[in-house]
UniProtKB/TrEMBL annotation:
Any Pfam family the entry gives: DUF1570
Domain DUF1570, chain residue ranges per copy: 148-252
InterPro entries, alphabetized: DUF1570, TPR-like_helical_dom_sf
Coiled coil: none
SUPFAM superfamilies with a match to the protein in the record: TPR-like
Gene3D superfamilies with a match to the protein in the record: Tetratricopeptide repeat domain (1.25.40.10)
Organism encoding this protein: Myxococcus fulvus
Domain of life where this protein originates: Bacteria
Protein name: Tetratricopeptide repeat-containing protein
Amino acid sequence: MLALWLGASGCVIGPRFTRCPGEGGRGWVELDSEHYTLRTDLPAEQAREAMGELERTRMVLLAGMWPSALRQPMAKLSVYILADWKEFKGLFPRRVQALYHRSETEALIVLSGPPSAWANRYSPFSADSSSRLNHELAHYLSSYVLLRQPLWLSEGLAEYLETAQLTQDGRSAVLGVPNKDATYVAARLLRDSVNSTRGGGVVPGTLAWEPGLNFEEQDRELSAMYAGSWMLVHWLIHERAERFAEFQALLSQGVAPDEALQRALPELQRGKMDETLWEYVRARPPPPRQVVVPPTDTAFVERTLEDAEVHATRSKLAALGASMARQAALVKNRQVLARKELDEALRIDPEGLPALTVKSAEASREERLTLARTAVRAHPDDSGAWLLLGAALEPDEAAQEEREAAYKKALSLDPRSIPATKGLAWLYVTQGRSAEALPLAQWAVSLAPWSPSALDTLALALAGQGRCEEALQLEHRAMGHLREQRSTEQEHVLRERLAKLADGSLCKPAPP
């Protein structure tokens, strides 16, 4: 079942992906809009329908929950849709139906099937449903508004927004319809808590939720955490709207979650919340909220992907699946698939940017520079090629002017490129040019507010300007995101920075 092999043409055949385009399999298309880059093997008409659904859902969630962010600049979101849900299930953990993933360089969502398959209707007699797209997109959008997010809030908002829908006339959205699955689980948990001799464990457990529950082995605990988070957020939105808004405002300013909770919602920590939520879930649900939705621009540019691009895309998805797997055999299986798909991309187009990027990662210092110059010659209008050159020039002290020019070129080709913005800002920081680094670092953080390295770069730029307290707050934010990612090596670096900021050796306050 886990076997993989190469066919006569070199195309990867196996249980994870269907036939590649070179053997008559489904072709892939790319649709590029202001907010999304969508890659999919759906039929072209369904791909266009998917792009429309993506744009409309974005507008619904922002208008309904964070209208102040409607015009906020954000990095373009990468979306991958596998037409065959079996391929999706073969790559990702059993419990996962869709996923949102973010890294230092991008944010992405992976879905399966046509748009009609993304929503789960609760009843054939009702339009009420929950949408996996809503859930994952809520995670992405909320990261631009709520700069600090405890896990219960992040998942509770996503669960709450799962049921948000556009009305038939397209002019308004309905939010707050109960999430049926979460309601059932939360009601059972709260009832058991209230009736138990100890009691009071649901809300404290939800508030203490930390990353780390295993998708494969702890489904029951995960369901309880999701349900408790949804119940708490639903109650806060409908019963404590002003206090909840104050809590979110504090988080949007970068205040630590525990401090924000104590200042805005101290009642959540007083031990009687299980009884309060039990009464809430037993009563008639409050009426849903209805909000006006601005018109949605669904314009996009469409193109067919080359075979090498298809293999590179499938390799990326397989590698992501490997990073999420827990069992050694599944990790290895996905890693093998990722490598074989990538090898096929390299065979078809040895000078394609995906091929050159991978070769560069595996090459010596001298070879990296040669490969980067090849990339720039072959792809002069691609920001990624200039990024390769900027990175390859980093160790060469005599080539820093060329490195700066490379990052500037990458940024001119893609002004919303997270790595180009961070790369140029970091170059300026290391050269002591904090005044030039500051606006770039601020732009990098606005594009990727979840990025520890972007936050660290901005903190050091501020420190160079004598804005020590702001720098300290940003490093604490960066540390919070690192803890979510469990990166001990980077944590050590940031702890040293925090210590030096605290003792004044890294920053001298600017004179008043």
